[in-house]
Design goal:
By secondary structure, the chain is of the alpha/beta class. It contains eleven helices and seven strands. The strands form two sheets. The chain has a five-stranded parallel sheet with strand order 2-1-3-6-7, with helices on both faces. Strands 4-5 form a two-stranded antiparallel ribbon. Helix 2 (44-54) packs parallel to helix 3 (70-80), helix 4 crosses helix 6 and helix 9 crosses helix 10 (193-207). The longest helix has 15 residues, at 134-148.
Length: 239
């Protein structure tokens, strides 16, 4: 006889800080022959450990874990399991609930909803669907669109974008060799000092700075770089 669990059986992990809630949820889900509660946990450490060992299909998470942030737990759970996460909460804070979905939760069920809705949500989410109301879907899609849209350049970035490739190379050299003379910097760039001064005159005009010191400060603040030796506070990953 094949003792493996049925292919369409859904293993569910429950995460909630209230033991009574966990007990009640377990009793409720046990009434559905398709659902198997594979374990319960009331804190982050136990939740991650259980998710690793029990390999649930669906995780029902109450994000209010007292002193622990259940929203941040979503990302940690998704790193160690392929389970689909449902937020089960009494909160009506749309900002927090939308954040949970953006982080990877597949649906939100309010504790005021019917038990039938909870059971339907588990099955639909297990099958790959989302469980969100229309308003939440619209808000989340808008957030995703805004996050992926190009950010408007600041005035300083616009000024930097007017530099030619040679002028940009000069500004980076000014940053890297701040202790050197213009003659020494020109030698490092393999150009004459006269050519370097011409480049600097153009750069000063485009960036609206008056001298080498102001240029150094301007570029150190606004010009991103992959080289931490140039100006370590402005990396390419900076916002």
């Amino acid at each position: 006889m094949n003792t493996d669990r049925k292919l369409d059986q859904i293993k569910v992990q429950l995460i909630d800080p209230h033991q009574i809630t966990l007990w009640g949820m377990t009793q409720l889900l046990a009434l559905n022959s398709r659902i198997e509660v594979c374990g319960t946990s009331s804190n982050r450490v136990d939740a991650l450990k259980l998710a690793t060992t029990s390999k649930p299909d669906v995780i029902i998470l109450e994000p209010d874990l007292y002193e622990e942030n259940g929203i941040d737990l979503i990302s940690d759970l998704l790193k160690i399991t392929k389970a689909k996460i449902i937020i089960y909460t009494g909160s009506n804070n749309s900002k927090i609930l939308d954040q949970a979905v953006v982080k990877g939760a597949r649906g939100v069920i309010n504790k005021t909803e019917s038990t039938d809705n909870l059971l339907k949500a588990i099955e639909k989410i297990y099958e790959g669907e989302l469980w969100l109301n229309r308003n939440a879907t619209s808000r989340i899609l808008l957030q995703i669109a805004q996050a992926s849209s190009p950010k408007e350049l600041s005035n300083e970035q616009k000024k930097l974008s007017t530099l030619t490739s040679k002028e940009e190379k000069v500004t980076r050299a000014i940053q890297m060799y701040s202790e050197k003379t213009l003659k020494q910097i020109a030698e490092n760039l393999h150009i004459s000092e006269h050519t370097l001064r011409n480049h600097l005159a153009s750069i000063y005009d485009k960036l609206d700075v008056r001298n080498r010191m102001e240029l150094y400060v301007f570029c150190g603040k606004y010009q991103k770089t992959d080289n931490p030796e140039i100006h370590p506070n402005r990396r390419s990953s900076d916002v």
